[in-house]
Design a protein that fits this description.
By secondary structure, this protein is α/β, with parallel strands linked by helices. It is built from 16 helices and twelve strands. InterPro entries: 4Fe4S-binding_SPASM_dom, AdoMet-like_SPASM_containing, Aldolase_TIM, PqqE-like, Radical_SAM_PqqE_MftC-like, rSAM, rSAM_sf.
Length: 394
């Protein structure tokens, strides 16, 4: 089958030329020009090619490995009034008006984004301004009607979480009929694409590796193959230890005057994962021919990655061991507050509903955070962050 990138370029060239500029800038700033980002003595950065928008906190599932709502989930203690605070569609549109100037790639995250009733309209508002968009979702909310609205909105990419065959998935992703509803949601979106005569959104099934499903990764890929999705990726666990959490807390307190609260969500037990099982499963995944493109987080290209080290040497950092995200990715909370990264939700920089985006992006707080990474290196619990390796240049 033609690669998804080739199909994407062909579609944009014929039907959505206004998005080609954003795609070209994304490639230029994350692949070619990225090393220059670190050279500015004032620790300011060019406007980011990536913007993550956490549209809500709420989720309808309670996945065992989730740092948000799992066993140690960081969102479980959030006050109801905090969970309820969200920017309106009109307020997000005002932000998109600013972003249209350089057209970054938008990544919508949650919670579960499609618990927000106007999510397709949010996507459409960004797409009309030439912004490339993607959503991370559990797919359980995707009815045929909602699928049509998503396709009409112009979504470019969707990440659908599925962690195994039905019995395995439902023991991990806890919620009523989670497997059946996720698979139905994927099929509904595939049908909506056919009705809309478009290859978009490209659909990825993301399978988070845990001790519960480690022997069923190939079986999960076979489900993805049968469904006909565009991508299948393994997501290795993001986790931390008590010692790494303590060291991170102490350094953050010393550097920025506060102790991170949300890091506790990453304290997940991973000790029963068998690296040899993972090697065998991935070897089979890479050897077989599939209808999808196979990938992994950390990316297959990251130098030195090894499943034994990943799960049993948590302080080992792979690849170039430098985080590019504070120079390349802005992260915005549901209420509009920009934060330094997904790992430090407590450190707010300013609200995009109140101040210009570029002013917050290079605020004193953000520049201080970049300076800390350059001077003292990664924080201890950053070593297993998937975003650390997404922009890795090793």
């Amino acid at each position: 089958m033609a690669s998804s990138q080739a199909r994407r370029l062909a579609h944009y060239g014929l039907h959505e030329r206004h998005k080609l500029r954003g795609l070209a800038r994304l490639f230029w700033t994350t692949k070619i020009q990225s090393a220059r980002r670190l050279a500015r003595p004032d620790h300011a950065a060019a406007l980011p090619p990536l913007v993550t928008i956490n549209v809500n906190y709420a989720c309808n599932l309670r996945c065992v490995q989730c740092w948000e709502w799992g066993e140690n989930g960081a969102f479980k203690d959030l006050p109801k009034e905090v969970i309820a605070r969200q920017l309106s569609l009109t307020q997000w549109e005002a932000l998109f008006d600013q972003l249209e100037r350089w057209r970054p790639y938008l990544y919508f995250f949650g919670g579960e984004p499609f618990l927000r009733p106007d999510m397709p309209e949010l996507i459409g508002a960004a797409s009309r301004r030439g912004l490339l968009t993607s959503v991370n979702t559990n797919m359980t909310q995707i009815t045929p009607e909602l699928a049509d609205r998503i396709v009409a909105g112009g979504l470019d990419y969707i990440v659908a979480s599925l962690d195994g065959p039905e019995e395995i998935n439902d023991a991990i992703r806890i919620g009523k009929d989670s497997y059946a509803r996720t698979v139905a949601g994927i099929r509904n979106l595939m049908e909506a694409r056919r009705r809309g005569r478009t290859p978009f959104p490209l659909i990825e099934i993301c399978c988070t590796v845990t001790r519960h499903n480690q022997e069923h990764l190939v079986a999960t890929a076979e489900i993805a193959h049968e469904l006909g999705v565009d991508h299948f990726k393994l997501q290795h666990q993001i986790y931390s230890t008590e010692e790494m959490q303590r060291e991170t807390d102490e350094r953050f307190q010393s550097s920025f005057g506060l102790r991170p609260h949300f890091g506790t969500g990453f304290m997940i037990h991973v000790g029963n994962v068998d690296p040899e099982v993972l090697r065998a499963q991935e070897a089979e995944l890479r050897s077989r021919k599939w209808s999808f493109e196979f990938g992994r987080r950390p990316r297959l290209s990251v130098k030195g990655w090894d499943p034994r080290l990943h799960y049993f040497a948590p302080d080992v950092v792979f690849g170039e061991a430098h985080c590019h995200n504070p120079w390349a990715r802005a992260v915005i909370q549901p209420d509009g507050e920009m934060i330094v990264c997904q790992g430090f939700h407590d450190y707010g920089l300013g609200n995009v509903a109140e101040k210009p985006f570029d002013e917050i992006w290079n605020s004193a707080g953000m520049r201080r955070f970049r300076a800390s990474l350059l001077k003292d290196g990664l924080f201890p619990y950053c070593s297993r962050c998937c975003e650390l390796y997404e922009l890795d240049e090793s």
